[in-house]
Amino acid sequence: MINSRKQIFLNHFEKLAPIYTKYKRRYSYYWNDIISYINYFLTENQSVLDVGCGTGDTLSKLIGNQKVGIDFSSKMIEQAKINYPEIDFKLMDAENISLNQKFDVIVLSNVIGYFENIQDILNSLKNVCKPNTRIIFTYYNLFWEPILKFGEFIGIKKKSPRQNWLSAKDIKNLLYLADFDTYRISRRMLLPINIPVLSFIINKIIGKLPFINSLSLNYFVFARPIIEKKQDLSTTVVIPVRNESGNIENAILRMPNFGKHLEIIFIEGNSTDDTWSKIQEVSQKYQHKFDIKIAKQDGKGKGDAVRKAYEMATGDILMILDADLTVPPEELPKFYDALISGKAEFINGSRLVYPMDKNAMRPLNIFGNKFFSLAFSWILEQEIKDTLCGTKVMYRSDYQRLAKNRKFFGEFDPFGDFDLIFGAYKLNLKIIDLPITYKERIYGDTNISRFKHGFILFKMMFFAIWKIKFW
Hints:
Layout: H1 4-26, H2 28-40, E1 47-51, H3 57-61, E2 66-71, H4 74-83, E3 88-91, E4 103-109, H5 118-125, E5 129-140, H6 145-154, H7 168-177, E6 180-188, H8 198-205, E7 218-225, E8 234-241, H9 248-253, E9 261-268, H10 275-285, E10 291-296, H11 302-312, E11 317-320, H12 332-340, E12 346-350, H13 363-380, E13 392-395, H14 396-404, H15 417-426, E14 431-435, H16 450-469
Parallel strand pairs: 1-2, 1-4, 2-3, 4-5, 8-9, 8-11, 9-10, 12-14
Antiparallel strand pairs: 5-7, 6-7, 11-13, 12-13
Helix pairs in contact: 1-4, 13-16, 14-15
């Protein structure tokens, strides 16, 4: 038996169904922005479930190789099947999802306010979740409630029954109670109608600024299932090397043993000293103790070296260790443990938490790192304290997906750090910082030019703003 409040919602949508598609077209600028932002994080080979799909208009425009929509309104589903016969639509209550399939992405777009019992809905979602499923909620900012009610009063918005009073924090708390981890909350759109030029300036530029962004109409909550710790996995540690002859053997001698199997790959990049011969010597000397692979990179830059090594890698987990050993090899098990425990899917080292050795980083470098930390935390909508730390860790399966989608950002990053960070963001991975101790270099000189490479970083920052904030 349907309770009175749920019946009110059902009656509302049954009545709305015949005109819903036409009604949404009137506000296509608003809806297309929601669709565009969700699509930013989707790939062609993913399966998508739309909960509360209505007449199927949103689902029809989402990227995916298999799409299923469910709704509790029979007239909405009937209309959806007429509009988009190629999509699988099912009449189903979200509190009792009974699908014999698990999905890569589950979307609940502007429907959570109509649920009688949100906790039951979230528990029901577990039946169709994989361990790495992404759940994306969209809802409106409560700050806009009076404006939306005024729109209903003057007739430019359809009247709707009173919805749940939910903030983004409320949704985050409900997800946590249902064993889901919220890893990102985003806000978009200050002007929900299309006024040429003005809407672009307000929504794409002004609306993205700190503080002002909190006034946006829509917010997006990204979540994933809380997963149990995985069993031991194999790991590949990639060590890009240029003019680091004195550090090669120490990198091996100080390497801790962790995980099911440890593979070490040295990639030499255009050294002018005896680094290559030292790599060959060390790999032969320790071949019975370590699984060591060596190669010379084809191009230039650390990014090129890392990409070559990742193509050679066989480990389940990929790690980068800078050959200067300023990030101690002894710290690597912390990254391994954080990844397999399910804390995140991309672990970024941070050198800016613990006190560092006196000469480990020059004052201008510290200032630059902190500036880029603030900038990229704003761009990526989550705190990234040290984007330039060389130690980054992720699953090889995620990297393979990243490589397939690399064309979106391109391959112009000579460092490799931003290729991975931006790619992880685009794949909708959960990213966290892991503080490490930062030591003074004991051999050789840095390969980083503060001003030359600083200029490149500024270019990359503005490129990221364009490809992420203005998308």
